[in-house]
Design a protein that fits this description.
The structure holds two protein chains of two kinds.
Chain A: E1 4-7, E2 10-13, H1 17-28, E3 33-37, E4 53-54, H2 66-76, H3 83-102, E5 117-118, E6 128-129, H4 135-158, E7 165-169, E8 171-179, E9 182-190, E10 196-200, E11 203-206, H5 227-234, E12 239-240, E13 245-252, H6 266-269, E14 273-275, H7 299-305, H8 321-333, E15 343-346, H9 353-359, H10 361-371, E16 380-389, E17 392-394, E18 407-409, E19 414-415, H11 426-447, H12 457-472, H13 478-492, H14 499-516, H15 529-553, H16 571-574, E20 576-582, E21 589-595, H17 601-604, H18 609-612, H19 618-629
Parallel strand pairs in A: 1-10, 2-3, 2-11, 3-7, 11-18, 17-19
Antiparallel strand pairs in A: 4-6, 5-6, 8-9, 9-10, 12-17, 12-20, 13-16, 14-15, 15-16, 20-21
Chain B: E1 3-13, E2 16-26, H1 32-42, E3 62-65, E4 68-71, E5 85-89, E6 96-98, E7 101-102, H2 105-113, H3 132-142, H4 149-153, H5 155-158, H6 169-180, H7 190-195, H8 207-211, H9 218-235, H10 237-246
Parallel strand pairs in B: 1-5
Antiparallel strand pairs in B: 1-2, 3-4, 3-5, 6-7
Helix pairs in contact in B: 3-6, 6-9
Classes of the chains: A alpha/beta, B alpha+beta.
GO molecular function (chain A): steroid dehydrogenase activity, acting on the CH-CH group of donors; succinate dehydrogenase (quinone) activity
Organism (chain A): Streptosporangium saharense
Protein name (chain A): Succinate dehydrogenase / fumarate reductase flavoprotein subunit
């Protein structure tokens, strides 16, 4: 069968916020750009984002600025973040949000007509630009409509709307193709008809999101099978921070079919409180030492904060997500959980019904329709859910370039920006800031090329054989293997980990990999989900192995990695990043330690000595003292 | 709490197909999409269905359940009796690719025919000032998750293929209204709504509003006001006089 072939300057894989922003940038810089996505255009997981996009515009509290946002981001990530990324993110987020408004986005407003900003966990000031609790939808629709606007412009100028930017929807990439060391293309198939497709391109931007479908309880959609993480590994790039997975504290726990679906943090930002089965606001018992002076110690003070932030400290329900998730986990384990195994999240006793419906319309709708619960009248039941992976492709902060020439990554699939734990609201702004940078990075890379790399025919045939293999086998049902992988990761490499369980998980994943070699798909190549899952399994297994291996090596607890056999945070480990690599056939993931480069002088001096002391080594502290003295 | 339900699911590809009967387990709290997934995992691994978020936010799993356009992820099994046979078919207005998956490219084509947001040339990003009350009208329409069930149910095109070229459907007529009501949009959209996108075909039967999973009042808040704006323009004696005197057609400006 003939393989369909296309030539582009830049191919963006993924059409969520990061992918669309990258593609828009590449097209605006004159590059012929393809967007390849597994779902329909406009359906990507970004639509699920609820709370908002964090950007220090200072519209609600004028004391906010990029330095405060930078500090909050580093604190949230427990100082493991790539500080250059955190700096660029904090500085550029406002421009990226304003740009969306010029493309037609309609954010909620302040009284003086500016973009309104809401409070969120870990952010010192109200910072999240939002539209009710459906900000992700607004973001993706705006970017989608910007792509359409560019296509309309191209139609006027060139007579063809797809001359410079084209969406290949319901198309899955299974391999990146190389010429020597450099990227030369991408291989994939159309989901709709099973036909194969090759893109000849010198630059690929990965924007495929996360890995949540390796877990049973997750807020992520089916697309989150770690495709970009695996494609990068197989192409020779490195992944960092893979042990850090964010379990969002508040996922739905009932009914079973919606277990894991997100309950936005805005519920707490707008006044919602967490209670255990005894009716106690238990978060006051879980304020960690590093945050002791920043959070209210009494309910009265916490409640006053909503109206008077200058004179009160914030309630502990708004601690960073890792802290809240662990606290809920402990309460449930101690037998103080709700009937269906979560805790109570109550906004009904805190705000008038009309106000709840106005501020949290999609939460009201979601609980009403899916759980038959009226959140204006009764509390919700919530528990931790696998939400986000901080780890991902190791990239250059300024350009999004991976260490394979021609390969770029942005958004959740990239690693470093969020350190060991991401603050809510920093994801949507991350997509915009680094999506644009990766698109620009790819365009600049293409400009600098003397000749276009060419994919070899052998690589194309190998990719073809790999993609079609499951159709030629009558092996085990892939759903079985997938379910076992999800259970393994959930139970053994979940929110609380230890060496014994992670070792067990690695053995189990190894066995599942052998079984995955034999899974088969019945039926034709036309829209065949069984076949698609067979191919996705390779990616999920590879990524799961990275997560488990890194989790076993990091002997400390930090952010989205909690070891009950190493409960403390270690200043020595803060300086170390774990870097995963794999061989081209995906066998054998190796993990190496790498030293985190020290923070630039002007950035580290944004922090107080007393705070740094909680995170960094004596040696680093001595350097800091010398620096401040100068 | 679990029971065996009777399902009839449309299966087929390449223009042919038929309803197939299944008996499948249902547990407490499940929705129709869960049952379709159970069929995939246990009986028919190649059963095609679009889905994504499973929380009513992405608009992928549009289908017809007992003849009514619904999102599979938002249709709870508890709304049916245990002995009822549940019939699941693809959206009727769009060509079937396979099983429950339809070719919805009509909608993407129409999206591209609506001129984009057009702000004044002299407003820079960051300078936009709008009051909440002025953005709320368009915000309601921007809740749209593009499930395309309004276009699917609309009788103008549901059984009238011949109207498709001249009719954008409720989804995209609402998009025109959204832009027309945007405080900063300066494009003139009234004449083109009527003449190019087929607003006049709509005779406000409100079928679109009834099926909207986001409960957007498409007819009352978007289509009727848009019709009124068009009519105001058409019968405004000053506009009429201006057009006569200056021989200017606003639709081409």
């Amino acid at each position: 069968m003939e393989i369909e072939r296309h030539e582009y300057d830049v191919v963006v894989i993924g059409a969520g916020g990061a992918g669309l922003r990258a593609a828009i940038e590449a097209r605006q810089q004159g590059k012929r750009t393809a967007i390849v996505c597994k779902s329909l255009f406009g359906k990507a997981h970004t639509v699920m984002a609820e709370g908002g996009a964090a950007a220090a515009m200072g519209n609600v509290n004028s004391a906010d600025n990029w330095m405060v946002h930078f500090r909050d981001t580093m604190r949230g990530g427990k100082f493991l973040n790539n500080w250059r990324m955190a700096e660029l993110h904090a500085k550029e987020a406002p421009d990226r949000v304003w740009e969306l408004e010029a493309w037609g986005a309609l954010f909620d407003r302040t009284k003086d007509g500016k973009i309104s900003q809401r409070n969120f966990g870990g952010h010192e000031y109200p910072r999240l630009a939002h539209v009710g609790d459906r900000t992700g939808l607004e973001l993706i629709r705006t970017l989608q409509q910007r792509v359409v606007a560019l296509q309309q412009e191209d139609e006027r100028l060139h007579g063809d709307p797809e001359a410079y930017i084209k969406v290949f929807q319901e198309c899955t990439i299974t391999r990146l193709l190389k010429d020597g060391d450099a990227i030369a293309g991408a291989f994939g198939y159309w989901r709709e008809n099973g036909k194969l497709i090759v893109f000849d391109t010198p630059a690929v931007v990965l924007a495929t999101g996360g890995i949540g479908k390796s877990y049973v309880v997750t807020s992520n959609s089916w697309e989150y099978t770690g495709d970009g993480h695996a494609l990068a590994l197989l192409a020779g790039a490195k992944l960092i921070n893979m042990e850090f997975i964010q379990f969002h504290p508040t996922g739905m726990v009932w009914p079973p079919s919606v277990r894991g679906i997100l309950v936005t943090e805005s519920v707490r930002g707008d006044g919602g409180v967490l209670r255990n089965s005894e009716g106690k606001r238990f978060m006051f018992d879980y304020i960690p030492d590093v945050f002791k002076d920043k959070y209210a110690t009494t309910e009265e003070e916490g409640d006053r904060w909503y109206t008077d932030q200058a004179n009160n400290r914030r309630p502990p329900e708004l601690l960073p997500r890792d802290e809240v998730a662990r606290a809920i986990n402990s309460e449930v384990k101690a037998g103080r959980g709700s009937p269906q195994g979560g805790v109570f999240l109550d906004v009904s006793s805190r705000l008038p019904a009309a106000e709840i419906i106005k501020r949290l319309p999609s939460m009201h709708h979601q609980f009403k329709e899916l759980a038959d619960v009226d959140i204006t009248a009764e509390p919700m039941q919530v528990g931790p859910t696998c939400h986000y992976i901080m780890g991902g492709v190791e990239v250059d902060a300024d350009t999004g370039a991976a260490d394979v020439p021609g390969l770029f990554a942005a958004g959740e699939v990239s690693g470093g920006m969020h350190g060991s734990n991401r603050l809510g609201g920093n994801s949507l702004s991350d997509l915009l800031v680094f999506g644009r940078r990766a698109g620009a990075g790819a365009a600049a890379y293409v400009n600098g090329l003397a000749a276009r790399p060419q994919a070899t025919e052998e690589a194309v045939s190998a990719a073809k054989a790999e993609a079609l293999a499951p159709l030629e086998r009558t092996g085990e049902n892939p759903y079985q293997v997938h379910q076992e992988l999800q259970r393994t990761m959930n139970e053994l490499v979940g929110i609380i980990r230890n060496a014994q369980e992670v070792t067990e998980a690695l053995e189990a994943v190894g066995k599942l990999r052998e079984r995955a070699q034999g899974v088969g798909a019945a039926g034709s190549r036309i829209y065949n989900p069984g076949w698609h899952l067979c191919l996705d399994l390779r990616n999920m297994l590879l990524v799961s192995e990275c997560v488990a291996k890194a989790a076993l090596i990091r002997e400390e607890s930090r952010g989205g990695h909690t070891r009950d056999d190493f409960p403390g945070m270690s200043a020595d480990w803060r300086r170390k990043l774990l870097v995963c690599a794999a061989s081209p056939d995906g066998s054998g993931v190796s993990v190496e330690e790498k030293v985190q480069p020290p923070m630039r002088d002007d950035l580290i001096t944004l922090f107080d000595r007393a705070e740094l002391k909680k995170y960094i080594t004596e040696e680093e502290l001595a350097d800091f003292d010398a620096l401040v003295k100068e | 709490m679990s029971y065996k339900a009777k399902f009839r699911v449309w299966r087929g590809e390449g223009g042919e197909g038929k309803l197939e009967d299944f008996t499948v387990e249902v547990n407490e709290g499940e929705v129709v999409l869960d049952i379709i997934h159970r069929l995939q995992a246990t009986q028919t691994p190649d059963l095609a269905v679009r889905w994504n978020c499973k929380a009513g936010k992405c608009g992928s799993c549009s289908m017809e359940i007992n003849g009514k356009p619904r999102l599979g992820c938002m249709t709870r099994m508890s709304t049916f009796s245990e002995d009822e046979t549940i019939t699941v078919t693809p959206m009727r207005t769009f060509p079937v690719i396979k099983d429950l998956v339809t070719d919805v490219s009509f909608n993407y084509q129409k999206a591209r025919e609506i001129p984009s947001f057009t702000p004044p040339a002299d407003v820079q990003p960051g300078e936009y000032r709008m009051q909440q009350i002025d953005v709320e009208r368009s915000q309601e329409f921007r809740k749209c998750i593009e499930c395309f069930m309004c276009n699917n149910v609309c009788h103008v095109i549901r059984d009238h293929e011949e109207n498709k070229p001249n009719f954008a459907g409720p989804r995209f007529l609402m998009r025109i209204a959204e832009l027309d009501m945007h405080p900063y949009d300066v494009a003139d959209r009234k004449d083109s709504a009527q003449e190019e996108h087929g607003l006049g075909y709509c005779n406000i039967t409100k079928c679109c509003t009834e099926v909207c999973p986001e409960h957007i009042k498409i007819t009352d808040n978007a289509l009727i006001p848009m019709k009124e704006r068009v009519v105001d323009r058409k019968y405004d004696p000053l506009v009429w006089l201006g057009n006569k005197i200056f021989k200017r057609s606003t639709s081409k400006s």
